[in-house]
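[09:14] KT: can someone run the structure on this one? pasting the chain below
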Amino acid sequence: MLFVQALFTLFLLLTPFSTHASALLPTLETLKLLLTDNPSVALEEIDTLLNKNTTPTYLSAAWFKLSLMKIEAHSLLGHYETAYQAIDELNQVLDKVADPDAKSKLLLSHATVLLSQNRATEAEEKLELALNTTSQADERLIADIHDRLAHINRFRANYRSALNHAEQAIQIAKRINDVPRLASFYNQIGIVYDYMGQIEQAISYHEQSLMLQRKRNNQQGISNSLYNIGELYRDLEEFPLALSHFEQALRVDKLLGNPRHIANSYGKIGQVLYQQGEYKQAQVFILNGLALTKKMEADSDTAWQLSNLVNVQLAQGDVNEALNSANEALTLAIKSGANRTERTVRLALANVYLAQDKSEDAKEQLELLLKQPQLGTQTQSDIHKQLAAIYQQAGAFEAALAQLKQYQQAQTELKKVSDKNKAYKMALNIELVKKEQALSLLQKEQSLQQANLENLKLQRGLAIASALLLLAGLAIYFLRQRQKQKLEALEQHMAARALEQKNQLLADISHELRTPLTGLKLTIEAMQFNIEPDIDVAYKKVNSKINQLDTLISDIYQSAKFDNNVMSLELRPLDINTLVKDCCSELTPVFAKKQQSLRCNLSGQVLQVEGDPQRLKQVILNLLRNSHFYTDAAGTSLVHTRLVDSYAIITVEDSSPGVATSELDKIFERLYRCEHSRSRDLGGSGLGLAISKHIVLAHHGSINANHSPLGGLLVEVKLPIKSAQNDIGHAKSPQ
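[09:31] RB: done, structure tokens below
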């Protein structure tokens, strides 16, 4: 999608803003794709288009579509107040828009924002009004309205109404052959069937949705499918596979930036961890999700997160905290009209009362639950079982027997469903494991026949890398023919390796490449138009930017090799003290140029490890260069080695400035910038520490950062000594 963005931006630069909708149709289609894949970037492009003309073209349908897309982008990013303000502004000029369905479209947009905050009642009013005022000619608009109404009825646990609206939306999408909408609507109806306990139908629709989303390479759609397939696994009590899918969904959600989706994924991971008995870890994820939903003021989502928290607090024995959480959740669920969430909360509240030996209060909640319509069979089974125990404890044996019979009936129904789904469960286990491999965000395969998600991402990444290198080649053409040939070879090299790089890395580095390329472009233009006073200085600037690009690309390639488990280590016995001493000797003149002191204190004991000398030397040099770059002039850097238990410890520390505590764990991430010093202007790629971490982990060691007593940063590398290592002659970096 970054390639789409680049082409889209080029289109903007070359095409003036037109008052005719037809002039923007290709742009709008491209922008719609970008909106679903990266709303943050889409918002920038929308603003660029809207600001090309200081006078809004109200009579243009294209201008109106752009304005609606802007509202959608703000909603996806959680900018709700900004979205509502934009809606109000459009309402004021609605009568000037040359679109007969402008009012209905704005009502739909308004309802979508309201739904993002769980304001279902207000959203339903907008949708009903939109359905009554729209013309029958715009079938896409009608389908979208039915889809939102299906969402609202699912939210309220009115599953039959939800199915009715979802089926109408699907029929329209099929009739007009709208594949993107059809994929989304399949996902919607799959969720409804899942909530109804009809796993067979849910699997069928989710698989159809996933197939269409993969063909379109729609990141948000793929995330939704991962999330819902994870929920199916959770229903089938396949918790490790459920956790894997939810974690993949969370990674995509974080890339796209939709706070509601991120919060939902946090909550689902918390649910699975709770069901696996990992209560402390579950609480961390649930609290992360809870913080987001409270920030969004999404009452229903907050109630759901709190109901998850209640279960964890009960499991940890925090009964009073669980009661407070349950009461808060119940208030929010009732306020928002979220019937399904209310049921979950009441069941959790009943469990709290039982933990407090308040049987009557628990019975009241359970009996209230039984009165609600369209209860799932599993929920009924749980309620009857708890009521039977309560009545038996109170001596009401007839009532207990009646509840027990109803419990047995529910169990019989569940067994029928379970038996019916066994074959589907087996097929799901086999088929979805394959899809899990194909959809993995952290792995990629070279076989084009598998056509998995990572391959589609990397193909897009290949286009980006090729385009960027082509720009570099064009720049060199204006400078020197010999340099052009060199960078063309580099372009071919990068194109051959692009399929081995992860899409996430490509997304991260796109911004990093923009700065040197911009500088390169400005210098070339200055030379082209004879406004550069010193040609030699200009050549030096160009060479500097090219070298900066060359360093960044080299580090990216090395990092990608580690990620793909193809970086080999040639292991042999080596002495850590000798290696550290050589590195210090090599860089002492470099430190002296900055009036910095480099001291090396070596252990008196023999520190022999099994390792790759070149790779471990690279780690030490990376740490020393990092210390040199980011330590003040006349500062001090200290390297020392020691033996602790069965590990050789290498410590590199320096004087001020230091690193904030919150950033200590982040400095080993790719391209992470600390507040003050992690700048590409120092000549580094921002990948040195990340590569060092890969190398250390491949040697079965560890690396971490802390505050140095000298006032700066302390980095400690821990490697097993030779006697503690496995006797292996060849190793690869871990996955």
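[09:33] KT: thanks! The CA atoms of residues 174 and 182 lie 7 Å apart.
[09:34] RB: yep, looked fine to me
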